């Protein structure tokens, strides 16, 4: 209830100050459970992605530092976030999201920064969770403001979804599947970015 209330309030505020946003390919969103994955460059795309998959609620993986103190722990928990130690991820980094997926929930994972192949390991965590949870990944790409100042300038905001990536549809070894699907995920991010830019030129 708190998650839905907070999402509604924030949504209204952001529409007032930043304008409406465009969601492309919303018909590609599969039925829950699934893992939605998007490159992470700021906190803003996390919020807008939550709006884009509405009315579905998203359970977010967040760094454990955001849960320090009783109030922050209460707030993050009620915003459907769960903690993970990004510097030294333990079994909970896999177990918590898989448990949510088995309950029919949607898990949101935002690998930090670049889509370059040198940072393939940043994407493999999301792929591993989807593989072990036996659910598809939904690739998404956010194009828009990176900070609050840019929101106030009403910079156009677009979220584009790609085709769901299925991981349990082959007889290949786990290592091979994770490698193959990680590369496919990064290629999809690049494709979605190019498609957004192409729609801007029309």
Automatic annotation (TrEMBL):
<dbReference type="InterPro" id="IPR002123">
    <property type="entry name" value="Plipid/glycerol_acylTrfase"/>
</dbReference>
<dbReference type="Pfam" id="PF01553">
    <property type="entry name" value="Acyltransferase"/>
</dbReference>
<dbReference type="GO" id="GO:0006654">
    <property type="term" value="P:phosphatidic acid biosynthetic process"/>
</dbReference>
<protein>
    <submittedName>
        <fullName>1-acyl-sn-glycerol-3-phosphate acyltransferase</fullName>
    </submittedName>
</protein>
<keyword id="KW-0175">Coiled coil</keyword>
<keyword id="KW-0808">Transferase</keyword>
<feature type="coiled-coil region">
    <location>
        <begin position="175"/>
        <end position="202"/>
    </location>
</feature>
<feature type="domain" description="Phospholipid/glycerol acyltransferase">
    <location>
        <begin position="34"/>
        <end position="145"/>
    </location>
</feature>
<keyword id="KW-0012">Acyltransferase</keyword>
<dbReference type="GO" id="GO:0003841">
    <property type="term" value="F:1-acylglycerol-3-phosphate O-acyltransferase activity"/>
</dbReference>
């Amino acid at each position: 209830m708190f998650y839905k209330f907070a999402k509604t309030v924030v949504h209204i505020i952001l529409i007032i100050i930043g304008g409406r946003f465009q969601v492309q390919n919303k018909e590609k969103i599969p039925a829950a459970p699934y893992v939605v994955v998007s490159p992470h460059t700021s906190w803003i795309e996390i919020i807008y992605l939550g709006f884009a998959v509405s009315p579905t609620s998203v359970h977010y993986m967040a760094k454990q530092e955001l849960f320090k103190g009783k109030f922050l722990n209460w707030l993050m928990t009620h915003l459907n976030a769960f903690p993970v130690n990004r510097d030294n991820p333990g079994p909970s980094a896999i177990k918590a999201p898989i448990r949510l997926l088995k309950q029919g929930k949607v898990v949101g994972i935002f690998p930090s920064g670049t889509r370059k192949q040198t940072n393939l390991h940043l994407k493999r965590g999301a792929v591993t969770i989807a593989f072990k949870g036996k659910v598809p990944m939904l690739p998404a790409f956010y194009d828009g403001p990176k900070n609050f100042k840019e929101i106030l300038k009403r910079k156009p905001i677009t979220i584009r979804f790609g085709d769901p990536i299925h991981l349990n549809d082959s007889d290949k070894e786990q290592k091979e599947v994770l490698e193959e699907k990680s590369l496919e995920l990064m290629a999809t991010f690049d494709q979605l970015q190019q498609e957004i830019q192409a729609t801007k030129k029309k």
